[in-house]
Automatic annotation (TrEMBL):
Keywords: Signal. The keyword Aminoacyl-tRNA synthetase does not apply. PROSITE patterns: PROKAR_LIPOPROTEIN. InterPro entries: GerMN, LpqB_C, LpqB_N. Residues 1-25 form the signal peptide. This is Hypothetical exported protein. Residues 207-299 form the GerMN domain.
Length: 584
């Protein structure tokens, strides 16, 4: 079966709700590329209506006790009191339920160990959640083993030793856990950056869980790439965030909070506001307190404080027409003002900056050179390499590309800095990409992250990495990429991807036959790409605007299509405008 057919078979209909956002996606026959603004209403309810897990039965054998402990992994509502009844000895008092969650598929396999009292539980793990709510997908079929020891207490079998954490079946995980975005800042405090975590908490306790995680700092792959207004050492005065009349009261330790400037307290409040009110329908306002003393109302976020969730994508499309760089804007194809002819390079894969009148980048016909060009300037050679990926602009105008030769080399160039005809470029080496074939690299619209698609032995991998910079200036030079967060999609082979919002990525595998585009979501409860789109024959490339309501694709014949709820709609006015690309 071809990769494209596999993709069609395995894609699940997770994003049915997203279809409603694009139900009326307009065709740009008379104006620019049209947009539809998505709604953003988050569900705060989780399914905590499970019957309490069954406690140990008198006279139960070892297998029944082990299975009972596994089943008690759903006992969030009763704080795992039942699970502890299966434990004895030190485990009964030292075992911590929240240190790790193993999400498994199929039935656990319980195997005896070297002695009659030693056992191991073999799980086909789908993912794991650590104590901070960070989810790590597992490769399909990779087993995870939990070792345990049993003992008799008053004639009854109990577990005397087992690692911290719970085990939970995939179907229960989807009902109990929910993805929540904690919001941090990019280093320049210009954009909000999401940090997706997974929490199992009732509607009454989830604000506390989210606030504690927020003030503890970002996930490891974002450390150094994002900023928080909350300094190290700050904590909740009490282990609760009460909500009264839709107002969440966050009471923090006084010493650190009172020493902070009014601007920093504004930034703290804004982080809390974005984290709680965007996702919890029960919260509309934040009160910030220091040791029960309400802070001055003047600390409320000012109108000048940026709460932008990524650079907005303009209506225009960049493309190639007759070997020249062009825009499609306001219903018309037009030359880019001030850009010289680049036909001699046989340009492809153009990228445009977010700002009007900003620089443009492109690859030469053999994907061995990346050029940048600004209006009323000559083009500059930015990168020479092998199998370069299509360029991608950050909001601060750094343009990125990666080599596809398994070297792990990534390049970032700033068009405004030149040395003669050579653009100033930095080379980064990501050890985690060595030996892998990189086919796509895209900078997020908050400028703090990159999305990388690579493959090894026919298996594709999507990874997110934080961008570390020399300093906190918005145009600061990149210096390193963090160890990545892996987003594994089971059994899929895809080569291209585009950001489709702050936590979604459109992935495709261009080629002959019918090709289906899938969506990988950082907040999806499984490892699969989701099917939003019907198949398109001989898909050559695609581009995404602000979200999934703005998707364009082109086939090998040069026909261009936009996607609406009833399928792909041909855009005849865009025919033969090749390698279409929204800004970014």
């Amino acid at each position: 079966m071809s990769p494209q057919k596999k993709l069609l078979v395995v894609l699940s209909a997770l994003l049915v709700a997203v279809l409603t956002l694009s139900a009326c996606a307009s065709i740009p026959t008379g104006g620019g590329v049209s947009k539809i603004q998505p709604t953003d209403r988050s569900d705060t309810q989780l399914n905590f209506n499970y019957a309490p897990p069954n406690p140990p039965a008198p006279g139960a054998d070892q297998m029944a006790i082990i299975n009972g402990f596994i089943n008690a992994g759903t006992g969030f509502a009763e704080n795992f009191q039942t699970a502890r009844k299966f434990l004895a000895g030190p485990a009964a008092t030292t075992w911590k339920s929240d240190q790790r969650t193993l999400v498994f598929q199929d039935q656990p396999n319980i195997v005896k160990g070297d002695s009659d009292n030693d056992f191991k539980i073999e799980l086909k793990t789908q993912s794991s959640i650590d104590a901070d709510g960070i989810r790590t997908p597992a490769h399909s079929g990779v087993p995870n083993t939990v070792q345990l020891t049993m003992t008799r207490v008053d004639g009854e079998w109990r577990i005397s030793s087992i690692p911290d954490g719970i085990m939970i079946a995939q179907q229960n995980f989807q009902n109990i856990f929910k993805a929540r975005s904690l919001y941090f800042y990019d280093p320049s405090f210009s954009y909000m950056v999401p940090d997706v975590r997974w929490f199992a908490a009732s509607p009454s306790t989830v604000p506390t869980v989210m606030v504690k995680a927020l003030i503890s700092g970002p996930a490891s792959y974002l450390k150094g790439a994002v900023a928080s207004a909350f300094p190290d050492g700050i904590r909740l005065l009490r282990d609760t965030v009460p909500i009264v009349s839709s107002t969440a009261t966050v009471d923090l330790t006084a010493t650190v909070l009172q020493a902070a400037s009014a601007q920093v307290r504004q930034q703290m409040r804004a982080q809390l506001q974005e984290t709680l009110t965007r996702q919890l329908n029960t919260v509309t306002n934040i009160i910030l307190r220091a040791d029960q003393l309400t802070l001055d109302a003047n600390d409320a976020p000012s109108s000048s404080l940026s709460l932008v969730h990524g650079a907005p994508v303009p209506n225009r499309l960049a493309g190639i027409s007759k070997s020249e760089l062009v825009y499609f804007d306001n219903g018309q194809q037009q030359q880019i003002a001030g850009i010289p002819s680049v036909a001699r390079y046989q340009p492809k894969s153009p990228a445009e900056s977010y700002a009007p009148g900003g620089p443009v980048a492109f690859l030469n016909g053999t994907s061995t050179e990346m050029y940048t060009v600004s209006p009323n300037q000559t083009e500059k050679l930015a990168v020479s390499g092998t199998a370069l990926t299509p360029p991608s602009f950050s909001p601060s105008n750094w343009v990125w590309t990666a080599e596809g030769n398994q070297s792990g080399r990534i390049f970032a160039s700033y068009p405004g800095i030149t040395d003669g005809n050579q653009a100033t470029t930095v080379t980064l080496t990501a050890d985690w990409l060595k030996g892998r074939t990189v086919t796509a690299l895209r900078v997020s619209r908050d400028g703090a992250r990159v999305m990388v698609i690579s493959s090894l032995n026919g298996q594709s991998q999507v990874q997110l990495s934080g961008i570390l910079k020399q300093d906190n200036n918005s145009v600061s030079t990149p210096r390193e990429l963090t160890a990545p967060l892996n987003l594994f999609a089971e059994g899929l082979a895809f080569t291209t991807g585009n950001w489709a919002g702050e936590s979604k990525i459109l992935v495709t595998a261009p080629g002959p036959g019918e090709v289906v585009a899938g969506v990988i979501s950082v907040d999806a409860p499984d490892n699969k790409a989701s099917n939003k789109f019907t198949a398109l024959k001989e898909l050559k490339g695609s581009t995404v605007g602000n979200d999934l309501s703005e998707v364009y694709a082109q086939n090998n014949s040069g026909d261009v299509f936009s996607y609406a709820v009833n399928g792909w709609q041909e855009q005849s006015q865009l025919k033969d405008l090749n390698d279409l690309a929204f800004a970014g």
